[in-house]
Amino acid sequence: MTTVLELRAVSKTYLDGADEVHALREVDLAVEPGEMVAVMGPSGSGKSTLLTIAGALETPTAGEVLVAGRPLSSMSRDDRARLRRRVIGYVFQDFNLLPGLSAAENVALPLELDGVPAGKARTAALRTLEELGLADRASRFPDQLSGGERQRVAIARAVVGDRRLVLADEPTGALDSVNGEAVMRLILTACKGGVGAVVVTHDAQLASWADRVVFIRDGRVVDRTTPRGGPDSLLAEEAAR
Amino acid sequence: MSVRHALLALLSEGPKYGLQLREEFEARTGEVWPLNVGQVYTTLQRLERDGLVESDDDADPGPQKGFRITADGAEELAGWLRTPPDLASPPRDELVIKILVAVRLPGVDVQEVIQSHRRYLVEVMQQWTRLKEDAGDLDLGLALVVDAELYRLDSVVRWLDTADGRLKRAALESPAATTAPGPRIRRRAGVRR
Asked: pLDDT digit of tens for each residue in chain A (241 aa)?
């Protein structure tokens, strides 16, 4: 299967007045289908820049980004826009649902913007809402949903259609811990369906839902977790104490 | 953890056998804290000695011997539930000591030391989260135990993050500050003498 996201020696430099700011320095990262990777670091470490570059919203100063095997640098502006609509789903901290549209209409919107006929888009939206356990919320408007439900609808919108990559920036930031957990379970469900996900966060509890955690500091990847075995080994350690 | 009070709690629901107590204890703590049967019987003997439980006098000691809570036992349990655990006096935390040593030791990259502990903690948190994920919402006891463990580990990660930020700021303000001996610590040590 094709790696859904690959960053090869990606650097990003901004000019702040006369000063050069190195937001990212030679970052390598690969995300496979079905995998959730968390990028953890303090504020200002470059983790949000990493997400906007991975999502084709910004271009790197150096290095190469491949989404679903295709290098972004060789794509036309239109191709990149199409990729953003069809292949990549975004989840933001503040949900970004359109208040005048129902949950189903919000989820169908990216498909309709991509030229899918309204009826087909609606069917796909309802199917995604159902897969994520939100079928009974389909006709509600955002102000009739709780914060947790709004974010779950936002995740449905991020995975609807044939998305391969979900990018989430502090997706549970505005939620209490129980709703935050529901959101992470939902992203995991999407991953089990084959999408790759990158979750950017400063929160260790959130990061611990990921298969792998990458630590970023001053624009550089400084460390990553290695799997320590399943929960059984944890209980064995407890028992040995 | 108080096995003594956990057994009293189980007996407050009605009389039970030793083996049954062990099974119920493990089931209700999400099977995270295994208990051996010897531990159960030793604890029951002490509880009986202290008049907090009673046993069937005529039965042989062993799996068929039944136990029930006494009025004193119920009072002890009620008191224990409301007694705060000793969290007030700071423990001599091994990790805190390691970071304090790393700060003072020449040639040690403190940030690298902090990161290695942060990575380990997050790896352990991943395992606990996996346990919660596998169990779903059904096992309430397990979910509560796992949440407690995750919050405990999370608080250590947050402390490391804060230490990291504090050291970074200190290094910016005065590059020598993180390696020079701390006058305030010396003064305190002086007071103790």
From this structure: 799 999 999 999 998 888 889 999 999 999 999 999 999 998 889 999 999 999 999 999 999 999 999 999 999 999 999 899 889 999 887 778 999 999 999 999 989 988 899 999 999 999 989 887 889 999 999 999 988 888 889 989 998 888 899 999 988 877 788 888 888 888 898 899 899 999 999 999 999 999 999 999 999 999 999 876 666 666 655 555 5
Domains of chain A and any CATH numbers: 5-240 (3.40.50.300)
Write down the ipTM of this complex.
Answer: 0.85
Shared-domain flag, residues B68 and B129: no
In a domain, B88, yes or no: no
B185 and B100 belong to one structural domain: yes
Angle (CA) A101-A105-A111 rounded to 5° is 130
Greatest extent of chain B over all pairs of C-alpha atoms, in Å: 77
**Same domain membership, residue B177 and residue B134:** yes
CA angle B36, B38, B43 (to 5 degrees): 105
Evaluate whether residue B89 is within a structural domain: no
Range of the domain at B119: 94-192
- Phi-psi region at A27: left, alpha or beta (left = phi > 0; alpha = psi -120 to 50): beta
Instruction: Report the CATH number that the domain containing residue B11 is assigned in CATH.
Output: 1.10.10.10
The closest CB to that of B150, out of A40, A185, A205, belongs to A205
User: What is the pTM (predicted TM-score) of this model?
Assistant: 0.80
Q: How far apart are CA A207 and CA A36, in angstroms?
A: 10
In angstroms, how far apart are the furthest CA atoms of chain A? 61
Say if the Cβ atoms of A204 and B157 lie within 8 Å.
Answer: yes
> What type of residue sits at position A132?
L
Q: Are residues B69 and B130 part of one domain?
A: no
Measured in angstroms, the CA of A216 and the nearest CA of chain B are apart by 10
Of B123, B128, B165, the CB nearest to A42: B165
Let me know whether B98 and B188 are in one domain: yes
